[in-house]
Amino acid sequence: MLGEELDPQGRRRGCDMCLLVPSKTRYCAKPEVFEDWKMALQQNTLDKIRHFAESNRKLEEERAHHPIDYHAYNHRLDQTVLQLQNQVKRQEHALQELRRSTTNGLPHAGLDPRTRLAQIRRATKAYKALSQTEPDLPRQGSPLPTLLALRETARQILDLKSSISATAQDLSTNRERLKAEQAAARDAQLISARLDERIKTLQSTRPEEREKRPAQLAKELMQQQRRRKGELKNKTTALKKALKAFIDDYLAAMLAAEDLGGPVVGDKLEVSDATLVAGYTTHGKEKRTKGAVGVDVERDSRQQRIDELVYRRSSGGGDGDGQRAGIGNKREAAGAEMHDLITSLLDAAGTSSYIELERDTAASRFLVKAKIAQFHPRDAHRLRLIDFARELVD
Question: Do 47 and 192 fall into the same domain?
């Protein structure tokens, strides 16, 4: 801390963490000591600000009780200017008289040492006599000291403003340099960590693996990549099956309901085929059927499911067009539409191009709301997948 006993190097006695900063300010670099010093400095600054504010307040109160007489002040200024002009004239006249009356100047080359010494002594005596005389200062109540103080204050304010702008520019440059240095330090730390890991890996390898030829190592690496590719392919197949099951079992009915004017996907998790056959009102509510009509609707939906099962068993693994032709209700149609849309988006994902939509569907809206796909900024009939891998690569 400031004021404590310091050694010649600027450190506190018995403390190896005290530093001497370039501004010649001594402080201790220990966290707790430095924080106390910092808080004391901030408190000192606040006290000065409060004192300045109190002085301004008192000055304003005094000015309110004793208003300034500007006419008298201007008259005093005129008198001061006139006095200064007269004083300048008197001093110029005295200087001219002194030049005319003085025959011997200051010592010059060619004089003997005694003469030069005598002239120097006379000049020294004259300077001492002048220095002991009272200076010609303005009278009490003269506005000249205030004007000089204002001029000096204005000059210092201008210098301070210029230094502030220069300091701000230097601060911005130093901040940019600090960011660059911090980024370089992080990169260096990452490189060092990776090199350490690589060294540990090489040190932990068995001696027989170190003696392998490059061709053998390349062959093993290719086999490892093939195994990894096979694992990724199996995982992709499993994910596709899970996605297909999710769409067929849960999502298709909700998509069909939204296409028919019903609730948005996610508002109602279970939608029956009978509800899809009956449809929805203009207000988004389910249409209700009474008596035999409801029985016929339910029977019709059950018959459609039986027909679909029979068609699937008879057709087996047919193509997409045949499967679409065999779809018997709206739920299956919505599921097939979602499958086709996802397939088209995946095919176009490699080129980062958009696909054209024939119409606005619940499937496309669901993909956009789920942050899986995005519309073209200027054309809502064009859609593409969001490139998640780009952020990982960057």
Answer: no
> Which residues lie below 8 Å from residue 7, measured CB to CB, with a gap of 6+?
13
CA distance 46 to 39: 11
Contact 297, 278 (CB under 8 A): yes
Give me the pLDDT at residue 179, please.
Answer: 93
Burial 21-47 (b: 16+ CB within 10 A, else e): eeeeebbbebeebbeebeeeeeeeeee
Three-state secondary structure readout of 211-278: CCCHHHHHHHHHHHHHHHHHHHHHHHHHHHHHHHHHHHHHHHHHHHHHHCCCCCCCCCCCCCHHHHHH
Radius of gyration of the chain (CA): 48
pTM over 0.70: no
Domain that holds residue 195: 173-203
Q: What are the helix and strand counts (H, E) for the chain? A: 13, 5
13: left (phi over 0), alpha (psi -120 to 50) or beta: beta
Q: Are residues 253 and 355 in the same domain?
A: yes
- The residues, any chain, with a CB within 8 Å of residue 105's CB and separated by 6 or more, are none
d(CA 130, CA 125): 9
Residues 63-98 pLDDT 10s: 777 776 778 778 878 888 888 888 888 888 888 887
Contacts of 251 (CB under 8 A, 6+ apart): 265, 335, 338, 366
Into how many domains does the chain fold? 3
Inter-residue contact 336 to 361 (CB < 8 Å): no
Query: In angstroms, rounded to a whole number, what is the distance separating the alpha carbons of residues 249 and 242?
Result: 10
pLDDT 10s digits, 295-313: 444 545 554 555 555 445 5
Task: Based on the fold, state whether residues 196 and 311 are members of the same structural domain.
Answer: no
Asked if residue 50 is part of any domain, the answer here is yes
Sort strands 355-356 and 18-20 into parallel, antiparallel or unpaired.
Answer: unpaired
- Give yes or no for a contact between 382 and 356, defined as CB atoms under 8 angstroms apart: yes
> 374 pairs with which residues across the strands?
384
Question: Contact at 8 Å (CB) between 360 and 366?
Answer: no
- For residue 65, give the DSSP letter: H
- How many alpha carbons lie under 13 Å from residue 87 in its C-beta half-sphere? 10
The reported pLDDT for the residue numbered 33 is 60
